[in-house]
Structure formats: structure tokens, C-alpha cells
Please model this.
Amino acid sequence: MLEEKVEAVSALLKSISHPTRLMILCQLQDGAKTVGELQQVLQTTQANVSQHLTILRSQGVVSSRKEANFIYNRIGDQRVLTLINTLQDLFCQ
Model:
């Protein structure tokens, strides 16, 4: 693997390695969700969810779309979705 690819993969893995961010990605596996929906499932504050989503967005892991008064977040990179599915198969069965 080229050094630049290794750096990119390392940055991606760092961005998803926090337990809250990993839980967010597990929730987004099934489709787009708002911050409020994620907050309820994760039982944390809206500010906390928003901070973690900001980190995931900065790495291109999560993308968002605005619909009326709601912003829906989803996994924006198919490779990340594949990774989360694989992690779930390996560790959650």
C-alpha cells in the first residue's frame, strides 16, 4: 500500500474508532437519521451527537441532506458501510 493510502486509511480508522462514532455508524447502517433520532437511541445530548457527526463529516464518512427543518445524516462512503457491516458480522453475531 502506498504511504499516502496508508495515511488516508489511518485517518479514517481514527475518525470511526470512538465508541460513540461507531454507534452512530451502526445506527446509520439502516438509513439516514436526524440528530434527534440518534440522540434518543444513543441516550446522549444533541450537542454530543453533533460534535461526533462533525468529525465523521470532516473525514467524508457521513454526508447530510436538508429536508424541511430536518437534516438527515447517512453514511456517505460505500466502503465505510461495507466496513461497518463486516465489523458487525465479525463481532456482533
Observations:
- The helical segments are 3-16, 19-28, 35-42, 46-58, 78-91.
- The beta strands are 62-67, 70-75.
